[in-house]
């Protein structure tokens, strides 16, 4: 479906009521596969903050099919398509998770196939029944039209999403009768297709840390514990292993240091998980019950592994939380001091969650702290931050970057928010290589802003012969302006005696000039073997490749191909009293969209978000704020305000106006 490029028709920010309906629909469809609470499924996809903006993007595929994408933080999470209904001939709309959603931890039924078969699926082929090694239908039976994933053999990372073309019952019967023919799954979306590229072309994680207890009954190896070593374990070894994994916290956290039962319960005082303490203590009591004369007991491998796995999961979530917080502090609070003070929940949702390590999920409820307030109080006791409670909400007022935990801390190379390398050393090298260009950061783009339209003859066209002759008479640069083309035409006409003696506005034809300006349907403009100079210029320019060059102050920017993109500002009505201001093409003027968004939040006292992809981002401002947007762009980038634009009351739409840089509709 997404093998070839698709066309974006519209982008709409969902209302709160629509978001609630979507979250309920997600819980309803994917809860049968979940091993955790069903309320956590929507949080895995959209984040714990229910105010996180979700964009509905309507696209048309290369086959003319209309599909709706749901995008969160520039990542497509779900898409809606139609499948055949089981009970009638009608079509039902079904939610499909993208590979990004599956990599976040959302579970669906899966086929397992050899890895060479995956290459065929990536090219758009359907999964054939002979290519199925196993499936999850034993625990979650599926029917025709059920949304299914495809994993490589020996892996739990889904790389393909599609719909089942055969039920699990019929598939098992076919295997028993050894009549394995036909298709098992219709491929809709794969890793490596255009939908995957729309989300930033992120690579799959090395392996997902999913609890596939319903699909995989045997516990996989956990570091030093394999199935063989778990077959017979003494009570002492099991207790030591559980306690050691429980107490091995991240460096810098001093929650525990002992290994006794009292130390185990001291986890509660350190705001650690009560459930973990209870489960560990119960496991310890069970392990201490002797079953032989030598006080040696045989421990069920799965029970020990599940207990250890729970300890590992909570410790890993604590590590992810600390790493994400420190990354967000360095990447945002340190580089943008005016960000503080900030609400603790806002900092968590807008900065900490996108700063987690790529390929991981982060939920404060799955850490030992359970609540954000407890986490902030804990690191405040450690001296990392200072907080202030205001109107029942914790606000971060100061971050101590001289703390020992920040010393030597390295930001992860890939973050979930962008999937790009964030290493400071690589960024420093990149900035040194770009010293010849002007930085578009805020408050540094001072100077008059202007641009020049440039042209170049296309290779292999008939017009190239004319420019080769003109270049002998009047040398031309590689990139020509309209003025250069006009001078070249005049020089060519004078050199070849083509100027009309009776009316010098007209130029007579020769073979090269006629081939360059003639069209399929000639009109009266070229009657009598002559044509006006301005028409010659217009027709020649229409056949040339177009470029443009931006100039900020006295510094010229690199030449770029295409027509100069104007900033598009439009006011969209969401209801009778609500409206949004959408800003497009701003990425061609600056790469600091978040800084502009921050200035708009302060100026407009309204919500501002940057959605879409890094290639085509869209800035959404709550309310009718076209004048405030233009004023901010003028102050930060030097872009002139369109004439006739005035501030309007909230909810009103400004009159359409434009200049060379901005168009307001």
Automatic annotation (TrEMBL):
Protein name per Swiss-Prot or TrEMBL: SUI1 domain-containing protein
Domain SUI1: 567-637
Cytoplasm among keywords: yes
Taxonomic source organism: Batrachochytrium dendrobatidis (strain JAM81 / FGSC 10211) (Frog chytrid fungus)
Keyword Transmembrane helix: no
Keywords for the protein's UniProt record, in alphabetical order: Cytoplasm
Matching InterPro entries: EIF2D (IPR039757), eIF2D_N (IPR048247), Pre-PUA (IPR041366), PUA-like_sf (IPR015947), PUA_eIF2d-like (IPR048248), SUI1 (IPR001950), SUI1_dom_sf (IPR036877), SWIB_eIF2D (IPR058886)
Pfam families (UniProt xref): Pre-PUA, PUA_elF2D, SUI1, SWIB_eIF2D, WHD_eIF2D
GO MF annotation terms: translation initiation factor activity
Entry's Gene Ontology BP terms: formation of translation preinitiation complex
Biased composition (Low complexity): 434-443
Superkingdom of the organism of origin: Eukaryota
Region (Disordered): 426-445
């Amino acid at each position: 479906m997404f093998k070839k490029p698709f066309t974006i028709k519209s982008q709409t920010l969902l209302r709160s009521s629509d978001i609630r309906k979507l979250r309920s629909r997600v819980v309803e469809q994917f809860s049968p596969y979940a091993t955790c609470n069903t309320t956590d499924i929507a949080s895995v996809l959209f984040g714990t903050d229910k105010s996180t903006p979700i964009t509905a993007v309507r696209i048309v595929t290369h086959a003319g099919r209309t599909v709706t994408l749901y995008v969160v933080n520039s990542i497509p999470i779900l898409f809606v398509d139609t499948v055949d209904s089981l009970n009638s001939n009608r079509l039902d709309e079904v939610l499909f998770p993208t590979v990004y959603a599956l990599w976040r931890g959302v579970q669906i039924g899966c086929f397992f196939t050899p890895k060479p078969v995956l290459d065929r699926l990536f090219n758009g082929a359907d999964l054939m029944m002979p290519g199925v090694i196993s499936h999850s239908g034993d625990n979650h039976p599926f029917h025709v039209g059920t949304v299914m994933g495809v994993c490589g053999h020996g892996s739990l990372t889904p790389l393909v999403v599609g719909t089942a073309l055969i039920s699990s019952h019929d598939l098992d019967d076919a295997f028993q009768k050894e009549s394995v023919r036909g298709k098992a799954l219709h491929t809709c979306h794969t890793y490596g297709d255009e939908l995957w590229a729309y989300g930033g072309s992120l690579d799959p994680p090395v392996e997902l840390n999913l609890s596939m207890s319903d699909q995989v009954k045997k516990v996989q190896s956990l570091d030093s514990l394999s199935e063989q070593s778990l077959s017979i374990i003494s009570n002492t070894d099991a207790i030591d292993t559980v306690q050691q994994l429980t107490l091995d916290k991240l460096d810098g956290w001093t929650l525990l240091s002992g290994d006794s039962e009292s130390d185990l319960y001291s986890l509660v005082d350190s705001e650690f998980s009560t459930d973990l303490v209870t489960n560990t203590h119960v496991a310890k009591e069970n392990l201490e019950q002797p079953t032989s004369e030598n006080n040696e007991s045989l421990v069920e491998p799965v029970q020990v592994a599940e207990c250890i796995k729970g300890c590992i999961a909570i410790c890993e979530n604590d590590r992810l939380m600390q790493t994400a917080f420190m990354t967000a502090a360095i990447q945002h609070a340190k580089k943008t001091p005016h960000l503080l003070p900030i609400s603790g929940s806002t900092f968590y949702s807008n900065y900490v969650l996108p700063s987690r390590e790529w390929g991981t999920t982060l939920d404060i409820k799955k850490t030992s702290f359970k609540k954000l307030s407890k986490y902030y109080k804990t690191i405040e006791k450690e001296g990392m931050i200072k907080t202030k409670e205001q109107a029942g909400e914790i606000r971060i007022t100061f971050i101590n970057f001289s703390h020992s935990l920040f010393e030597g801390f390295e930001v992860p190379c890939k973050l979930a928010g962008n999937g790009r390398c964030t290493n400071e050393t690589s960024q420093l090298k990149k900035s040194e290589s770009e010293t010849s260009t002007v930085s578009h950061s805020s408050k540094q783009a001072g100077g008059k802003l202007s641009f020049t339209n440039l042209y170049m003859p296309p290779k292999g066209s008939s017009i190239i012969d004319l420019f080769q002759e003109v270049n002998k008479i009047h040398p031309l640069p590689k990139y020509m302006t309209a003025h250069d083309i006009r001078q070249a035409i005049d020089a060519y006409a004078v050199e070849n005696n083509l100027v009309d003696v009776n009316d010098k506005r007209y130029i007579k034809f020769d073979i090269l000039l006629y081939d360059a300006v003639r069209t399929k349907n000639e009109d009266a403009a070229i009657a009598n073997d002559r044509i006006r100079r301005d028409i010659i210029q217009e027709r020649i320019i229409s056949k040339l490749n177009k470029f443009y060059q931006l100039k900020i102050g006295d510094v010229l920017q690199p030449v770029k191909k295409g027509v100069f993109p104007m900033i598009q500002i439009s006011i969209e009505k969401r209801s009778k009293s609500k409206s949004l201001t959408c800003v497009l093409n701003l990425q061609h003027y600056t790469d600091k969209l978040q800084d502009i968004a921050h200035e708009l939040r302060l100026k407009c006292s309204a919500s501002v978000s940057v959605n879409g992809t890094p290639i085509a981002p869209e800035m959404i401002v709550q309310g009718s704020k076209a004048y405030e947007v233009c004023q901010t762009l003028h102050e930060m980038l030097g872009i002139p305000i369109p004439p006739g634009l005035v501030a309007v009351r909230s909810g009103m739409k400004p009159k359409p106006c434009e200049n060379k840089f901005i168009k307001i509709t």
